[in-house]
Amino acid sequence: MKKRLIQLLAIIMLLALGTCVCFASPTVVSPGANSVHDGDSILVSVKLTEKQTIRVSVIRQMEEVKAAVYETTVDEAGNEQTKEVSPAEYKPYDASKLTEADVALLAAGETKDAKGNPIKLSNGSAVKTLYGETVSGPVDYKNASDLGFYTKQISSLKPGLYVIQVDVLGKKIEQKEGEEASEGDYEIIESVKSYVALKEKPKETPVADNGIFSTRNTALQFLQNLLRSLFR
Amino acid sequence: MDNKRVLQLKMTVLVVLFLGAILLLYLLWMPENAELNISRIFDFGRAPVQTMDHRGLLVPDSVNISRGDGSFTLQVRECEKSMELALSILKEYYSYGFLQLEEISREQYLQALDGFRSAELDFGFSLPFGFIAELGGFEESGAAAELLISRICFSSAARDSVILVDGQSPGFWRLVFSGPIDCMARFSALELEDEPALAWRADSMLGLGNDELLPLAMSSNAIGFEIRPEAYGDEYLAQDMAEDIFGDTFDFVRRISDSFGNVTYMYGYGEKSFYAGIDGYFEYTSSAAGSEATGFSEDLQRALAFIEACGGLKKTGESTGLRLCGYSESGGRVKDRTFLFTQSFGGRPVAVTEGAGLKVSLSGGSITGFTRRLYRWMTGLYGDVLPCAEASNVIASNSNHIYNILNNNTLAAASSEAFEFAAGETVSMLPGYFADSMDQLNPCWILRTKDGTAFYFDLYNGRPLGFCRSQL
Amino acid sequence: MDWSKATNILIALFVAVDLALGGLYFSQQYSLAQAEAEAARATQSYLEERGASVRCSMPEGKKRMAVLFVSIVKDSEPLEESRFDGYRVVLSGSPGYRAEGISYGDAKAGTLSASGALQKFVALHAEDDILTNLRIDDIELVYWLDRQDLQGAEGQDTARPAWRLRTSQGEFFVEAF
To answer: Are B393 and A148 within 8 A, CB to CB?
Structure first.
């Protein structure tokens, strides 16, 4: 009897696992995960392999410069009340010296390793906890076929670290009594994030050749041209 | 008095004798029968016919401007202005002095385009650079003239160079000149009415596929409307064309018509055959190949002269402008050449059920055939500006269809396989028009694949409208 | 200037020229006729050698004819001949159909004579057995169209003048243009 119960349980678990696996997550095709780009534009491209609705936001990563200041007061009844005196201050996270490996570490979000030591980036600074500021979106997109793409170019971005967040939307959350009717309150089934670092595009040098072509052996090229013109 | 009369009489006799001599000479030297001699048939290769202006013929299918960060803007209208600018820049480069022609790698080409501000004119087909030199009025008689190129690129990566690309073979070259020109400043200064669309490379946009550019979020005010075949209302057009083709022998050719009214004119046992369909489709074939070693320009001139002499372009309404949209050649010294021409509307090409509206083939400098399906439209119609179907989703939703057509009616094992295949085969995706068999002009996406097949999808909802295999 | 003398000289000159040209022309025509007759004789003797014989009279002369536009229709009354302006209209290669003449083409061209057609026929079949003991019963100028390539189709087509030879080995057509 016990053996049968265990077998039944195993089957149920397998079935449950199976149903979980068939749900396909959206993939952020562009920008590449943990990639580093020059310039002020990125192409956001999300590949969807199921009929689903997604919500896409581009969030700039900020670091805390100054922590919030709180004041705790005790009232007549003896209750403690904590009040914020000054808000926290943030500045955009400086991504100018980040490598792809650094972005991967920041994406992982772990500030300390297994031994408890702080995780360091390539420039020596420690991995910090970062906060988000939405710079584009959220935009909802409904995919009505078995394969679809959400594509959008986000331009005029300042250099920094960005997260492309793709939330898979589910059912509409039921309004609680007394609450204001607000649009866009959907259940979020899953969230996919992709980190990208944007750096300032280096100024173009107004020279004849920026080094792409100078690797060719010009003597060989001259000979090639001579032969080509002879046998034309 | 008497003498005068005698003299007059003598003069009359003299005139009669003179005319008699002429008549006898004619009888002696002219053949008695009206011989059906092939050499007497109007030879379009040698007849001096008024030729069309070449400049308007070659217009890039798109002009791709890179901002240097991987993003592009795609210009699909007013490309003639960019062409004029490109030719003037090339002429200036040549005036500074041509140094060398250098072969470069695909990687170098992509680096020059993606990593730096650049402008690329894409014709959509390959043609000799020597012809472009002719159009631009600069001298290029070296190895570069023989190159078949489909794209001309100017990049701030190398201000002393012009990059040439043959998209078909593929091949990449760099023309190096003595003096640098800030080409991008000149392209930026071009005043265009239309807002160009954004574009990215397919592998960035789709996660797989190739590095061809695909448009992103395009809008258009193009709408569909009814058009007329060029023969509409002109019942003599077919006969006029046949008379132009057969010349003196027209009265002796075999004229076959079927119960629908399609007519075939045939000389001999098919040495020359001209088909005129009532739906406005014309086809001419001739087995008489020439043996002249003609150049591209000469053959193009002959092809245009033939079109002008046989049917012309007078009756095509608003858009009489023909654009060169395809070219192929084969053979050694004596070449077989095929030219494809298309009508255009609103700056965009008009595709017909055969593909290009006009196809002319030559062998050894003689016309060996043409196909023709041209339309007329009285007024151009435009609607409100609406967003077009996204290129990525058009490919995604039609990938099984594309797979099916390109793989001879076999189905892909999985839609992911079909999508990967379709994305990899796509060479370009640009807006245009498709004239269907119901004489309706439909705004569409024209998706071209590596083997030359063109797929037509509705511009706004992405549904398939038709396809056409390569005519070359 | 003595016009009278000058005109006399010119008249004499042109008379001489015209006579010479006329002579040339007539001798040319004569030798052409001779050649034709010779060819006809040669054909006749060649046919005799092969045991063939011509059992009909050969029509004389050459005509200038145009093509004939015809309409191809299903043969409702197969016994009736199709004729146009006195010429028989013969359709080959399309059983069950007949060709009805509609109108002539715009221009005329010279055609072979009956004799010439016979020579062409002999030349075409010199290498094979058809000519051996062939009996040619009839030779007639008709309008002929071979529609083997378009069997079973109605519509319009173009018939051309041809000589129809009715022989012991069947019907043969020789294009007259």
So the answer is: yes
